[in-house]
Amino acid sequence: MLRLCLRRLxxxxxxxxxxxxxxxxxxxxxxxxxxxxxxxxxxxxEQVADLQATLxxxxxxxVQYGDWLGGLxxxxxxxxxxxxxxxxxxxxxxxxxxxxxxxxxxxxTVLVGVTLGxxxxxxxxxxxxxxxxxxxxxxxxxxxxxxxMLVFAFAIRLPVLPATGYVDFxxxxxxxxxxxVLPMIAVGLAGVGPVAFQTRAGVIDQLSxxxxxxxxxxxxxxxxxxxxxxxxxxxGPVVTVASLGFVFALGGVMVIEAIFNLPGVGTLMLSxxxxxxxxxxxxxxxxxxxxxxxxxxxxxxxxxxxNPRIRFS
Amino acid sequence: MTPSITALRxxxxxxxxxxxxxxxxxxxxxxxxxxxxxxxxxxxQDLSNTFSGPSALHWLGSDELGRDIYSRLLxxxxxxxxxxxxxxxxxxxxxxxxxLLAGYLSGRVDAAATFVVDILFALPGLVVVLAIAAVSxxxxxxxxxxxxxxxSGAIFRVVRTATxxxxxxxxxxxxxxxxxxxxxxxxxxxxxxxxxxLIVQAIVHYSGTFLFLTSLSFLGLGFSPETPSWGQMxxxxxxxxxxxxxxxxxxxxxxxxxxxxxxxxxxALLEAVSGHRRPSQLxxxxxxxPDEPADAVVPPAPASVLTVDRLHVCYxxxxxxDRAVVRDVGFQLQRGEVFGLVGESGSGKTxxxxxxxxLVPPPGRVTSGRVLLHGEDLLRLNEAQLRKVRxxxxxxxxxxxxxxxxxxxxxxxxxxxxxxLHRRVRRREARQIALSLLTRVGLPDPAAVARRxxxxxxxxxxxxxxxxxxxxxxxxxxxxxxxxxxxxxxxxAEIIDLLLHLREESxxxxxxxxxxxxxxxxxxxxxxxxxxxxxxxxxxxxAVLLSPAQEYTRTLVAATPRLPVDAGEERSWA
Lengths: 313, 574
Known about the structure:
The complex is a heterodimer of chains A (313) and B (574). Chain A has helices at 2-25, 34-39, 45-55, 61-73, 87-123, 125-140, 143-157, 173-207, 210-217, 222-260, 265-274, 278-306, 308-311. Chain A is mostly helical and 313 residues long. Chain A has a domain at 95-264: MetI-like (MetI-like fold). In chain A, α1 packs antiparallel against α12, α5 packs antiparallel against α10 (222-260) and α6 (125-140) crosses α8 (173-207). The longest helix of chain A has 39 residues, at 222-260. Chain A is globular. The radius of gyration of chain B is 34 Å and the shape is elongated. Among the domains of chain B are: 5-39 and 70-227 and 251-274, MetI-like (MetI-like fold, Orthogonal Bundle), CATH 1.10.3720; 294-393 and 475-558, P-loop containing nucleotide triphosphate hydrolases (Rossmann fold). The chains are: A mainly alpha (313), B alpha/beta (574).
């Protein structure tokens, strides 16, 4: 188990190195001279030269690359071109918002999806079809449209939940949750379908296995067979789908942040794109990659914990 | 007709699928012919007629600037539907050759390609596309291509897996040996096997891409603010939601219906290529109570532990009518005897055995008969009552010992769970009982076996564990369904010895289901022969094996070389 963790951890290093390099190269993709592009038309030559110096663009590419990597090791992602904040500061205030919603919606997705998929597989027939139709329709509703409708229904017409804004978890966990319930559903609903489909397929497959008959022949109740044994054996692929769902949710949150007025990474990135604030954009790419790599790592560890055949191979 | 075409036809026959296809074709054509179907200029403002709601002029109403919603919908869909083809095309161009080569060549090429895909999966798709938007000055085509590259990993994995699987097929192997060129093998023999999963994945991909592009347009990226687009229309609608909620309806319907239709078509194809559903082994709580035979008052013989009386089991056939797989089967087990139920596979012997425990997998069901355990009819018990019989009064030993154990739990944990269930003891006590059970089934180091997972056991040890599991509730009847069929010959003998030993030790009554007359000769006191769902002959083992009354039994005996068929010979196996 420890060896597996270490091996996976080791494989993360080259991946992150390549991601860091690609992120560095992002600025080279800019057509023409990056500094004049970032400043837009109407910039004076002095301003362009100034920015070139700030970004280090006047130095050899290899030196720039070395600086960039060195900075990353110190947690230095550069300074925003627009505000005076460092990129790390901007991200550290925006990331918790986006990650909070993504985590909540993944929890929501998994709870609802696993329940629906299991019920559909075990009951079969009409229940199965009804559940799967619901999940299919849920998957097809765009999160940004749903977000609008949720605000309309639960914040305007039936004002039970706050429509907009964010409260820090540390400040008030209850407020934090109540502000994030609607975003959680808006982002999470789309993920319910894939999780439910995977759970259903896995449970149907497991239900046909011989060990289910052994357990039943030993007098174990249906509920216990399904909840303890079948779900455990069906859980591997569900964990993978859930982790893909989390990655998907990270993007989904960014799309709907504007509707809920959440000061997350989406809001930060959109304003940075409009203002050509490239260091912030680069920082966001790196931070998200790191999160995704960590989640993938966690997924592997969880999968190994759940499946003794992986653990002992 | 190839299987894939048959599957395709079956998928197309479903209403959800053809309605979806009609919608997809309809919306594509409508968007392509928008200027004909929606003559009002989508950009034409009419500030005197804002938020009009559906009317004769504006079929779906007008927006905050009085622009026609119907016209904007039709003009705004085409760009999205077309642009979504770019990432799918890019992904296919990269992933199909990549996946074919990685799956076909394996080794280093495979490792390298997989590493690249791992990197793609580590990149946050939306964030990277937003970054590209920042450096490409919001160029939609560049963003779409980038998205195609980023998402090619999913298609790569599908193609690689399907190729690796196709490579193992016998005729591909034959083609490899005959030294056809690699390209030819890939194109002629492997690609067709990959097509099914690839089409499904491409549709899923297109659907996801379409949704992604609408998100971009919602964020005001990529698509020009002048031309209408569904995402941007949603944004406008959302901004006016509290006063004019109608605006959300047309665009929401168009978006959801299009994505839903794509997903439904994809799912139907996926189901069509992925084949049949095997029956569930879970007991059915709504199992119908079978009919009682006409003269059910007749009591069983007093010494009988288990009586099966005129049992009928049916499966629904292709045409909906019932097909009987067990017909009028009856026998009695005396206390402490070993009773053999023999027959070829498909003769109904296993179904008969499973009927006793109420475990016939649906859609099969017992239609009539009685199963009396000490005079109590098990077929008339409900699921909760039957559960008290299973394991604690009748135990079951299955054919495939490895498959019969839950792969996720240790032997000790599985035994412990059953012991706690049946004997209502604490966990520590259960552990002691588990170890003594493992000792009882002849395992010299029970503590070591208890710590192992099923995949770490040999077949013989696994079968001993399965027997221990069946004994955990101290049943007095054991139903053993082909307990030796999956084992080596030497191990078979050990298991037979174990069963005989257990019978002596605890007066177990044993119902042994088998196709192996050698095993019957070794162990059974009496035997019944089944053929085509009927019980054709029954008697003492000696009588049935040495002087079979039925031609069928004679053939069966003759087909077992280990048996001395000559009636005059000494019963050396007794």
